[in-house]
């Protein structure tokens, strides 16, 4: 039989989970998060600009083929 880890009811657990995920992890450095987001926002556009139109089409065709070949 499984042992109960805590005596909290499900509502308390859910509330604490929402509280921690809504604010983000308390251990993250806000400056690092902002810097990572900045790089993420630039990444796709910068990569597309660097690629030739032929290569960009190849990548797009591969993505479309992969997307539409999946069974739902």
Overview of the molecule:
- With 72 residues, the protein is mainly α.
- It has a domain at 29-72.
- 72% of the residues lie in helices and 0% in strands.
- It is built from three helices and no strands.
- It is elongated.
- Residues 44-72 are annotated as: Disordered.
- Residues 44-54, 62-72 have a biased composition (Basic residues).
Topology:
Elements: H1 10-23, H2 30-50, H3 53-69
Report the uncertain regions.
Answer: none
Number of helices: 3
Strand content: under 5%
Distance between the termini: 38 Å
Helix content: over 70%
Q: Roughly what is the average pLDDT, rounded to an integer? A: 79
DSSP summary, beta strand count: 0
- The gyration radius over C-alpha positions equals 22 Å
What brief labels describe this structure?
single chain; 72 residues; mainly alpha; 3 helices; Histone H1
